[in-house]
Design a protein that fits this description.
This protein is α+β, with helices and mostly antiparallel strands. Among the domains are: about 90 residues, Ubiquitin-like (UB roll) (Roll); about 70 residues, no CATH class. About 15% of the residues lie in helices and about 20% in strands. It has a 5-stranded mixed sheet, sandwiched between helices. Strands 13-12-11-14 form a 4-stranded antiparallel sheet. The radius of gyration is 20 Å and the shape is globular. Bound molecules: iron/sulfur cluster and FE2/S2 (inorganic) cluster.
Length: about 325
Amino acid sequence: MAKITIDGKTIEVADGTTILQAARMIGPDVAPPTMCYYSKLKTSGGYCRTCLVEVSKGSEKDPRPMPKLVASCRTTVMDGMEVKNNSSEKVTDARKGVVEFLLLNHPLDCPVCDQAGECHLQDLSYEHGSAKTRTDFERRNFEKINIGNYIQLHMNRCILCYRCVKVADQITDGRVHGVINRGDHAEISTYIENAIENDFSGNVIDVCPVGALTDKTFRFKSRVWFTKPENAHRDCPTCSGKVVVWKKGDDILRVTGRKDQWGEVEEFICNTCRFETKKTSDWTIEGPSPINNHSVISANHYEVFEKPQELTINQIRPLAIDQNND
Ligand code: SF4
Ligand code: FES
């Protein structure tokens, strides 16, 4: 076990736990934001630098501070470690820089983007971004790509977090896709189209933190804040059948996985539940879904997550296991 203090709050965690996991166990007040880490996907994290923190004391044995900010999703705790997240000016500054970097090529599409209202980049920009841009060069421009009948890839909005690549790699059969090219030319390879034959390919939409991968059965049907998210379930032979149905009146406009307070799906759902089961009679409605109070859709009428959902021991995946899988 290791004792770690984050923004003045101390917790004891199992060895192998990352700083981010420890922070999430303490609660949302100290948990750094994440754009690429996803607890349900192996080897995720380490790409976006959103989760940077300052380690002001390395450990009990070696109390020297770490010379640079570290990615909390990729750094394991040491006994006696002290970490500053929101209490560090360096972190606030660096995070602002990261947001600016993520927005370098991201179009200002929010008024027409289906992800608006539940976009992690939008939330991050409001919380940590600057109101002005310092660049005036043209952003990258890609053609939209249809990934089968149900999913659209809008590469202009992609922040290269690799989550969809990992979903297609880990949840669907065979590795037939990836990020091609590097630097400014990097893009999600269209080979991802091959993953469409798989029952679970629709999950790339749920893990995408921005509006780069959207559900074609829902595109432009409604702004998300005009819909009512309700937990529902059905007997499904392929997945757990536990979903959120997004309703307008009595019509179900879209079906997604259920998300936890970190914006991550609790369980991946199959394409039949997501794309082909849109009649109210298909579902047993359980009641309103809890909504992250980050989101504009929490405005006035929905229950928010009340207290931190603690990670169970099974959700704490020692980093060493991840690295072996790389
Ligand atoms: S398409 Fe979305 S999930 Fe995939 S790498 Fe880009 S931002 Fe991440
Ligand atoms: S969440 Fe840690 S680097 Fe992206």
